[in-house]
Amino acid sequence: MELIKAAGVNVIFPKQQSCCGQPAFNSGYRQEALNVARSQLACFPKNIPIVVPSGSCGGMLKHHWPELFAGEADEEQAKQVAARVFELSEFLVDVLNLKLDDLGKPVKVAIHTSCSARREMGVADKIESLVAQLDNVEVLEQKNKAECCGFGGTFSIKQADISGAMVADKSKAITDTGAEILISQDCGCLMNIGGALEKQGQSQRIMHLAQFLQERTGE
Amino acid sequence: MNNPNQQFVQFEQRIHNALDNDQVRKNFRHAMSGLMGKRAMAFADDNELQELRSQDRLIRANALLKLPQLLEQLEAKLTENGIHVHWAENGEQANTIALEILNSHNAKTVVKGKSMVSEEVEMNHFLEEKGITVTESDLGEFIIQLAGEAPSHIVMPAVHKNRKEIARLFHEKFPHIPYTEDVDELTLSARQIMRERFEQADAGITGVNFMVAETGTLCLVENEGNGRMCSTVPPLHIAITGIEKVVEKLSDVPPLVSILARSATGQLITTYFNMISSPRKEGEKDGPKEVHLILLDNGRSHVRMDEELLETLRCIRCGACMNHCPVYVQVGGHAYGTVYPGPIGTVLEPQLSGLDKIGTLTSACTMCGACAEVCPVRIPLPKLINRLRSEAVEGKHGVVGLRGQGSLRKSKESFIWNAWQWLYSSPSVYRLFLSLATRLRFLAPGWLGPWTRYRSAPKPAPKSLHEMVASEGYDHE
Fold first, then answer.
1. Mean pLDDT in chain B?
2. Average pLDDT value for residue range B41-45
3. Cβ contacts of B56 within 8 Å, gap of 6 or more
4. Which fold has domain A99-217?
5. Is residue B219 part of a domain?
C-alpha cells in the first residue's frame, strides 16, 4: 500500500474485507465459498482497480469468481469486480510503470513465482522485471524454477507427506543457489517454503515482494 | 458396496510406499526432467504450439459433439472396408468378444501392442485365465509383464525402473542370456525373443490412437515397429479402443499426430505411424486375413453427458500432464492405484469407477496448473479436479449424476468449513478474531499437526493488517 501511495495514487482499504473464498472453493465446498465471496462483493463499489498482493487470491477473484457466481443473481456484479482485479506486481509494472531506485546494499536473492501468478494470472515476468530494476540486487536462478512449492492450500494438510516432499525439493533448490533472501508475490508459498527453511535451520530471509521493494527503495 | 473411507487408507498407504522408495523417486525425477526438456525443444515456437493446441482442441471437441453420428459413420466405413466392428459396453463384454474371436480361429498365442484400453479391461489377465498365452511386445510393457507389474505411466509403462533393475530382471527370467547392463544388448535380447513370438503368434492385439470416420481408417502411433508386427504378421488382428478416439476427417489426423508425438516424447513424428484400412486383400502377399475392432464404452457415454466433464474425453493420451505434474514426479504412477495415473487419471478414473471408489485421488493436486499449461487439447484439468472435489462433498452441480456424488463428505470437515464461512462472512466477527489472534499470539502453538512435520509453525503478526491500516490513516471507502 505504501509503495502504491508513494507513486502518488490514493489507496483505499475497504474495512469489510476478509477472504476471497479460495480455501473452501479449492476443497470442493462451493456453497461456503460463495457465501464468503458474496460478503465481499460490496467492498468494491467504485470503478477503480483492485490490487491483490497474492497471486492465488488474485486468481480466485479474477478467474473463479465468475465461475462461482455463475447463475446467481449477483453474477454480473461479481464479473465486474473480477474484471478490475490486478495482481500487485502486474499493477506496479503495467499500470504504474513504476521506476525503482535501489538504495540498498548488494544482495543475492532467489525469486519464487507462485503457480497462480505464473499460470493463472500470467504475470511471472512482472516480479522479475521489478527486481531487475534494482542495481544492487543479483537474482540467482534455481533448479526446476516453475515447479510448484507444494503448498496448494488444504493440499498441504490433506496430502501432508507429498507436500512435505515437494517443499523439501523446492527449499533445497533455493538453498543451493546461495541466495540470502527469498522473494515471492504470494504469501502462501512464502509461509510454506519459509516454514520449511526455518525448520531446516536455514538463515535466508523470507520476504514478500512488496516488503522487499519497500525496503530497497524507502528511506 | 465400497467403503469410501477405505480408499483414503489405501491411497495413503500407496503414497507412503512411493515416498519411501528413493530409487523409484530418483527414476521418476530423472525421466520426467528428460521428457519435459525434450517436449520444450520440440515446441520452440510458442505461437505455433498455441495455434496447434487450439486447432486440436477444436478437432477433438467437434468429434465429441458429433460422437453418435461419427461412430455410426465409422462402423459403416470400416464394415465397407472389411473390418469387423464390435461394441462393448464394459470391460467384461470387451474381453468376452476378444475371446470369442480368438476361439473361433482356435488362436492360442497372442502378441500384443501397447494398449491402455486393454489395461483398463484387464485383458491379459482374462485371456490367460482362459488358457491363452499373451506376450506384450512393446519393450516397456514386456518388462513390466516379466516383472508382474502394472504400467506406471501411460506412454512409458516401465519408467519406474532403471537400467540395472531391468538388467537383473532379464537375467532372472532368461538365465541363458548373459547378464548385461548395456541398453543396446538388452534391447537386442528382447528383440530376439520377440521375433520368435511374432512368427508363432496366432493373433495380434493392439490399441488404436485415432479412428477416422470419413474413411474407416485405424491409426496406430508407435516407435518400436512392434505395433506394425502385431497388426500385420499374425493372420488375425484385433484392435481395441475407447469410443472417444474417433475423429471426423482424415485431415484431422496430421495436426493430432504432430502434437501427440511432440507432447509425449519430443519427437516430431513417431518412428512408426500405421494406418490400417482393411485386412489382406485378394492378391496381396501380407497382412492379416481378418481385422476386428472392439469399441469400448465403459462409462464414456456417461462422461459425455455432462457438458463440463466431457472435456475429459478430448484426451489423446500423450502423458504430458503427468510428465509435468509435481505430485506425479514425487509419487510415481503406481501410487494412484489406477490404470490411468497423473492429472488425467485423477479426472478420468473417478468418473469411470465412481467418486466413492477412487474420488480421493482428487486430493493429490495443488492446483498448480502445470498440466493444463501443456495439455495438447487444452483440457482444463485443475478445473475438472476442482469440480470433482465439489461433486465428492456437495454432489449437486452436475446435471447427470456421477457415481458416488457426496460420498466423501465428512462431518468434521463440513463443520470446519461451516465455521470458516461464519467467521469470514461477517466483517465484525472476522476483525474481532484477527485482533484476538494478534493479541494472544504468544499462545500460538508450535505444533500444527502434519504441517509442522516438515515446517515451523507460522506465528500471527504482532498487528493485523486491519489494525496497521487503521493506524496509518488510509481511506476505507
1. 94
2. 97
3. B255, B256, B259, B316, B376, B377
4. Rossmann fold (3.40.50)
5. yes
